[in-house]
Amino acid sequence: MSDSKLKQKFADPSRGVYFIGTTPPKSSVSMAQVSDIGDKLLERLGKIDFDGLIVYDIQDESSRIDKPRPFPFMNTHDPRDYSAILREKSGRPVITYKSVSQRSREEFDEWLDRAWCPHGVRDLVLVGSPSSEGEIKLPLSQAYATMKEHSLNFNLGGVTIAERHASKGDEHLRLLEKSAQGCEFFVSQAVYNPQATIDLLSSYARECKERGLTPKRIILTFTPCGSAKTLEFMEWLGISVPQATCHRILDAHNPLGESIRICRNNLDQILEACGGLGIPLGLNIESLTNRKEEIDAAIRLYKLLKATLDLKLAELEL
Amino acid sequence: MSDSKLKQKFADPSRGVYFIGTTPPKSSVSMAQVSDIGDKLLERLGKIDFDGLIVYDIQDESSRIDKPRPFPFMNTHDPRDYSAILREKSGRPVITYKSVSQRSREEFDEWLDRAWCPHGVRDLVLVGSPSSEGEIKLPLSQAYATMKEHSLNFNLGGVTIAERHASKGDEHLRLLEKSAQGCEFFVSQAVYNPQATIDLLSSYARECKERGLTPKRIILTFTPCGSAKTLEFMEWLGISVPQATCHRILDAHNPLGESIRICRNNLDQILEACGGLGIPLGLNIESLTNRKEEIDAAIRLYKLLKATLDLKLAELEL
Fold first, then answer.
1. What span, in angstroms and rounded, lies between the C-alpha atoms of A17 and A10?
2. Cα-flanking dihedrals φ and ψ of residue A285, to 5°?
3. Mean pLDDT on A192-201
4. Which of B45, B253, B283, B310 to mutate to test the interface with A (most CBs of A within 10 A)?
5. Which domains are assigned to chain B?
6. Between B12, B47, B310, which is nearest A307 by CB?
7. Contact B257 A303 (CB under 8 A)
8. What is the structure's pLDDT at B303?
9. Which residues in A lie closer than 8 A to residue B317 (C-beta atoms)?
10. Per its record, what are the GO molecular function terms (chains A, B) (predicted)?
11. Which of B300, B311, B315 shows the shortest C-beta gap to A318?
12. Could you tell me which residues come within 8 angstroms of residue B86 by beta carbon, excluding any fewer than 6 positions away?
């Protein structure tokens, strides 16, 4: 199998790139069921054009926060497996997440080798420990170093969290550091606070300009939110939701529809402020729950935001 | 080879369909050169997502009008040939135009058979005589009748001319008549007079509702115009360009850019008036000349208008 097909798309700043984010099924279901779940997902995506899928690696993040997780944590299938199934069935690239902290370097090495072949993973996002507490067998920086020693030509990405920028003001420097460690693109946490994302993108663009570097592609994640429980879950995940936005969603006659309008307005604001900064952007739309109405809303949101970004990019070319 | 792949896409009213229109190379060039021209075109289209191509059948329309043709008429290669080459190279469907009036029914029959196989044409638009003068060996209505007798399952389309609606007020009835004759979709002449298109679409939607019929898909054609000569050619082709629009293009510092802004505004007006009428729409962007800057402008126009229609359709789903 050849190299990453996404690399070439990512390298063209005149185009947006568009993904659907999803999580592997819980580990208690059989591989036959995993395959069925993949079929069902792709059937739902049948009417939309997308560049690829993103498969997360869900960790038990309870060490990060004292509050109970609104949806109970469950171990999932290895993201490599689900990623391979989705790539095979859809014929499209799949960006695969991998949490590195719980296993040793040797185990990570082996995971990487098998991810490349037979699993066919080419686009990989490494995720560090959710908190500095608990045992970290392999820190993220060492995982990046391991990647550099590998001859496998992964298209490597990192996560970026605008909320960290809002609190510490240095997330743009982390992007540069991760780029030096090999990251070619970044995927954000779900955006509900556009100002934090705008500040991050603006700082990143300035810093790149100062250092004479080309900004990497940043894929912004958006997700619909249709209930108080999903909202609680977002907050548990560390997604910053301004108070007024919470009120708008909770008080709406149709919370899901209201969250779509909010996401669209948030993207509009980000594009207004950052569309001309020269940072190539992308979108990743995920549904945080498996509720049918939230998945359908994610597809509506996807179409709306993709057209919004495509239109902005076309306008910038005039 | 299987049936038309476009049929299924056309049948889903929630999605737009997007085409690039082009003409076959002149008949004096060799097939090797035709192949090179196809490569060059597809290379230019490499960065955009499109559902297919449209290959026109250029007629000598001098019987229709007294004025000399601004760009001299030249015979071209058979649209079947160029269509097969483009389909093969791009892996995408190609809608092939065919002028029927100059040849006998037997010749048309034979053309159809070979178009189906080996040429692989599945999506076909028949075009009648440009004027009622001159010998018509096969009227359009008889060509449609011939199609019905064929067992070949073409996805048949027709042309529609909003300018005819502006002058005669009955183009919506022609759409219904052509549908009864087998047309499953329509492609418009280039739009520069949005009101004529709005009136046509509005009349068509009302008539369909009254008769309890589902409106067919209508693919609107847009083209950039970067010079007085192209503008003159558009007028020669019968495209209605309001006076103020001519002035805007001719007086602009950058006529090509101005024509793109005009086209976008025209599509906005059409979608504002007709987006909610239940007529599934599509876009076809063509370059009327082979000038590099007009072709590049056509690609910019394509991206802008596709995102505009996609956004409107996504908004309608909210």
1. 7
2. -110, 130
3. 96
4. B310
5. 15-313 (3.20.20.220)
6. B310
7. no
8. 97
9. 300, 303-304
10. oxidoreductase activity
11. B300
12. B22, B38, B41, B42, B53, B55, B92, B94
Interface residues from chain B to A (CB-CB < 8 Å): 12, 14-15, 47, 49, 257, 260-261, 300, 303-304, 306-308, 310-311, 313-315, 317-318
**Which of the four pLDDT bands, split at 50, 70 and 90, describes residue A277?**
very high
Is residue A64 over pLDDT 80? no
CA-wise closest residue to A181 among A157, A162, A202: A157
**A186 touches A214 (CB < 8 A):** no
Q: Number of A to B CB contacts under 8 A, please give it.
A: 58
What pLDDT was estimated at residue A118?
Answer: 93
* pLDDT at A150 > cutoff 90: no
Contact yes or no for A318 and B257 at CB 8 A:
yes
Q: Which of A49, A257, A311 sits opposite B311 (nearest CB)?
A: A311
Contact across the interface for B12 and A306, Cβ inside 8 Å: no
Dump pLDDT digits (tens) for A232-255: 999 988 999 999 999 999 999 999
pLDDT at A70 exceeding the cut of 90:
no
Cβ–Cβ under 8 Å, residues A156 and A183? yes
A-interface mutation test, from B296, B302, B304, most A Cβ less than 10 A away: B304
The closest CB to that of B314, out of A12, A257, A300, belongs to A300
ipTM for the whole complex: 0.86
**Nearest alpha carbon to residue A220 among A301, A154, A317, A120:** A301
- The pLDDT tens digits of the residues spanning A176-187 come to 999 999 999 999
pLDDT (average), residues A81-99: 97
- The Cα B102–Cα B63 span in angstroms is 13
Strands (E) located in chain A: 17-22, 52-55, 94-99, 123-127, 155-160, 185-190, 217-222, 281-286
Instruction: Give yes or no for residue A61 having a pLDDT over 80.
Output: no
The stretches in chain B having pLDDT less than 50 are: none
Do residues A139 and A101 make contact, with C-beta atoms less than 8 angstroms apart?
yes
CB-CB neighbors (< 8 A) of A314 in chain B? 300, 303-304, 306-307
By CA distance, what is B261's nearest residue in A?
A318
List residues of chain A with CB under 8 Å from any CB of chain B: 12, 14-15, 47, 49, 257, 260-261, 300, 303-304, 306-308, 310-311, 313-315, 317-318
